[in-house]
Design a protein that fits this description.
This protein is an alpha/beta fold and 301 residues long. The chain has 2 domains: 47-237, 3-Layer(aba) Sandwich (Rossmann fold), CATH 3.40.50; 250-301, N-terminal domain of TfIIb. The chain is built from 10 helices and 12 strands. A 7-stranded mixed beta sheet has the order 3-2-1-4-5-7-6, sandwiched between helices. Strands 8, 9, 10, 11 and 12 form a 5-stranded antiparallel beta sheet that branches. Strand 10 (273-278) and strand 11 (281-282) form a beta hairpin. The longest helix is centred in the N-terminal third of the chain and has 16 residues, at 55-70. The radius of gyration is 19 Å and the shape is globular.
């Protein structure tokens, strides 16, 4: 992918083309992470605009999510939205919880969307929130490190990768995993056909069952923005076990060794990999890793 082709793709997006469909050689092809990244990055800013133009829907949707989390009856000291986008959902959800979580996290594959998220969280005065780039299959978070993990149509474009997505998310979840994703099994035929054409996930509930997960609830969510893409809710409870408290959940996405903020970047002294922070956005995708065996050392020549 070169600069010229990205410029061409941007023009096609501005003309209203579906970028993921533009990339596909065949309608049944899986959506690649590259397709998803480019498509989502070009959309950056649209969710903040939507939050301004449709405040009632945002309030209804986030109120319903916050209510669902509250009814779980657990102390939520840490929360993570996977596929945080521009944080328009995350910021409004956490502010509606009975008690603000001590630590608030969110990640997205698109740098541009996370950059919008940084500003949106500032506007909402959520100083204890950290958002960064990552993909859901290589989350830079320690095992059993986040009390409540939830998604909001972020697994959606990853049809065919349901098992890998669930395993990745369950790994980092400590108490509950909430999936607000296309309800393929509960949708009508027209909606199902559209989901197939777009390469959306279709078997999340069945996959969770096949993995033997503890499914607490599965139903249509009460608030949905598109009748042809109805939102379903799946709540999965993590098996009750005693885990040691993780004070710093950030880890190297490649080696899963601890990351520490040092000299303006995130560094793992065990993997000797460093991840940059670009304009307030920590870049924690595996492709962002820089080999730096002497990082932080005083170098004399």
């Amino acid at each position: 992918m070169n600069k010229k082709s990205l410029a061409v793709i941007k023009k096609k997006y501005e003309m209203g083309e579906n970028i993921i469909q533009h990339f596909k050689q065949h309608p049944s092809d899986q959506n690649s992470l590259a397709m998803i990244l480019i498509s989502y990055d070009l959309q950056s800013g649209s969710y903040v605009k939507q939050a301004k133009n449709k405040p009632r829907y945002i309030q209804q949707y986030t109120t319903a999510i916050a209510k669902t989390i509250t009814q779980l009856g657990v102390r939520c000291k840490s929360i993570l939205e996977v596929g945080v986008g521009e944080a328009t959902t995350l910021a409004n959800v956490v502010q509606k919880l009975p008690q603000l979580p001590d630590k608030i996290y969110g990640f997205d594959i698109s740098w541009s969307r996370v950059r919008y998220a940084v500003e949106y969280l500032k506007k909402k005065q959520l100083k204890n929130a950290l958002v960064f780039t990552s993909d859901l299959f290589n989350a830079p978070l320690a095992d059993n490190s986040i009390d409540i993990v939830y998604t909001s149509h972020s697994i959606e474009p990853n049809g065919g990768r349901e098992k890998a997505a669930l395993e990745s998310l369950l790994r980092i979840t400590k108490k509950y995993l909430l999936l607000l994703e296309p309800a393929f099994e509960l949708a009508n035929k027209e909606a199902q056909q559209r989901m197939k054409e777009h390469g959306y996930v279709k078997n999340l509930y069945q996959t969770a069952q096949d993995l033997g997960l503890n499914i607490v609830e599965h139903r249509l969510f009460e608030i949905s923005g598109n009748p042809l893409n109805p939102t379903g809710l799946i709540i999965i409870k993590k098996d009750v076990q005693k885990y040691k408290r993780v004070s710093n959940p950030l880890v190297c996405p490649i080696t899963k060794t601890p990351l520490r903020l040092r000299n303006g970047a995130y560094f793992s002294s065990k993997s000797l990999l460093v991840y940059p922070i670009i304009d307030q956005v920590p870049c924690l995708l595996t492709d962002n890793a820089i080999i730096a065996s002497h990082y932080g050392k005083k170098i004399k020549v």
